[in-house]
Amino acid sequence: MASRASRLALAETRLRNILRKHVVASGRTLEQKISDAGPNNQRIDPHVLTIVRRSLIQRGVIEHIQTGNTRWYYLSGTDPSTLANRLSELDSLHERTQKRDFIIRLGQTLEIATFRVLSSQSNLEFFGDFPDLDTHDDSTHYSKTEPPSSLSGQRIPHGKQLDFIVRHPQEGYAGLECKNIREWMYPDRVEIRETLLKCCALDIVPVLIARRIHYSTFSVLNPCGVILHQTFNQLYPGTDLELANKVKDKTLLGYHDVRTGNQPDARLVQFLETNLPLVLPTARKSFDAFKDLLCGYGNSEHSYKSFAARVKRRLRGKPEELPEWESELDDNDIDWFDYEE
Questions:
Q1: Residue 259, pLDDT score
Q2: Which residues, 6 or more positions from 288, have their beta carbon under 8 angstroms from its beta carbon?
Q3: Kind of pairing, strands 70-75 and 234-236?
Q4: Who is most buried in 24, 151, 166, 199, counting CB within 10 A?
């Protein structure tokens, strides 16, 4: 395994090269080109990119400019007119992906792909429906019948709901959350906490489906009974083919993994039809053993660092009530806490 110093050096080289070639790029584009693409031995995880990018900004190597909610990065000394023209081109395209109507339809696309498997190929009983799915195309969003927010007298606080609830014949219920977003799912993200909070409130196994899920998320949550599935694609509505083709263009935003339509691929079918029913019994046992920690993390009783340390101590049979800084986390684990948007 490469050392931390070598990963940081490689991240700096790749950041410089990408910005030199593309003039200006958002954090999502940098992640796509450096974390998701390229030779495996040259891929750098997003949290490491964040560390190095901050360092390069502090050293004056990289500068940034804000447009709306998006920060764009470029090398210091870039020609102002070249920068302005390139930024205008990229920002106008990026803005199309940030419109409220598109974001709603984008979120539904993965939910509908999941729904199609559950309703036609899975033997799991489930709650959640799209009653008008066959009445119009995806240029407008569909109606959604949400699953219940209460089960057997237990309820999710603040009226929140899961995307789907499934029922295993022997092991009971699991709650599914579908996150069709570009960001990698790190264990400290709000989407993770909210999923845990909802499922703990109903006492059901948490299941997260997302484009990319970082290894640290698997490392800390899988032993606790949380089931995780990566799609490795972001699904765009089928009627947005022109937009999808543009964002995939390697000279523009470079989101090469975008595909269109709400039909499930073989990987999602395999997960929902075969893998999920197989792993639910084991996950249920682990969830019962770690539910107190998952609940404490979901409701912010524990910080992420405290939660992760407690999980690792419990797995190792060691006392959990130690000061947070006595975490017994190794060098790679410490990287988790350096990540921020």
A1: 97
A2: 225
A3: unpaired
A4: 199
